[in-house]
Amino acid sequence: TNARHRCLVNNDLFFCYHIAPVHGHMLACGEPWQVLAQQYCTKPSVRTVADAIGLSEGFIMSSCKRRPSPDSVDAIRHLRFLSALALHDLVNEADFHEVAAAYSTSRGAVQSLQDAATVFCGCVTTFCERVGWPDMKLLFAYFQERITHGVKQDLLQLVEIPFVKGVRARTLHRAGFCTVAEVAQAGLDKLEAALQPGCRDVAELKRTARMVLSGARQLEAKEAAALMAEVEEFEEEDSDDSLFDDAGLIGL
């Protein structure tokens, strides 16, 4: 209950902290306390979330000089926040190399953190469902998609298209494509023009545009079929209810 009361629903970093894994799955870097201190001091916007979860600037600074036990509650809380900061960069579309450089770690460590956070977010979503927090369940389920793909909210539709990941989705979005339907209904020439900045040569551009167009059309057809199935199921249920109503009227 306390977590719900202190939930900062408009702050991505807050959600990143609560999906950041603990213990062996936290971000691995050589000097974590120095990195945390640098991030904490150079990003004033993180203070709101840091205060909400009970972090202490004094503890961070003292830990740079004398490392606390990694198993202590305070150490775990603060180092988990370091993982959250890296995840926050990922969901705001920083690439693996940028995040690795900023946190003095490897690209593989950042990828491992992303994978672990995706799984842990699924666990948090399930927990919210079981304890009867439907609003929190929806928020964490939505955030799981963002951490999986490493994108902002406006790209969640586009990254569902086969062969479209974060960078390519952002390229399409900048060209005016915001939904699967818009991509599926586009002409090949328009897609080629939109995708040109991310391709090295003409052959790659044409191949990429064809794959994206085909993937969008397949996805649109799949979604249309699923919607039609739902409509048919609803009509069948409605028809069954009508039969029961008619039977009641004639005394059956």
Short structural description:
The chain has 13 helices and no strands. By secondary structure, it is mainly α.
What features would you describe in this structure?
About 70% of the residues lie in helices and about 0% in strands. It is mostly helical and about 250 residues long. The termini are far apart. Mean pLDDT is about 85; it is low at about 1-5.
Which properties best describe this structure?
mainly alpha; 252 residues; globular
Number of strands: 0
> Fraction of residues in helices?
55-70%
Rg for CA atoms: 24 Å
Structural class: mainly alpha
DSSP summary: helix tally: 13
**What sort of overall outline do the alpha carbons produce when their principal axes are compared?**
globular
Mean pLDDT, all residues: 87
- Give the CA-CA distance, first to last residue: 51 Å
Secondary-structure element string: HHHHHHHHHHHHH
Tell me the major beta sheet. Answer: none
How large is the share of residues in beta strands?
under 5%
Q: Indicate the low-confidence ranges by residue numbers.
A: 1-5
Strands, helices and their partners?
Blueprint: H1 2-5, H2 12-19, H3 32-42, H4 47-52, H5 57-65, H6 73-91, H7 96-102, H8 107-130, H9 134-149, H10 166-174, H11 180-184, H12 188-195, H13 202-249
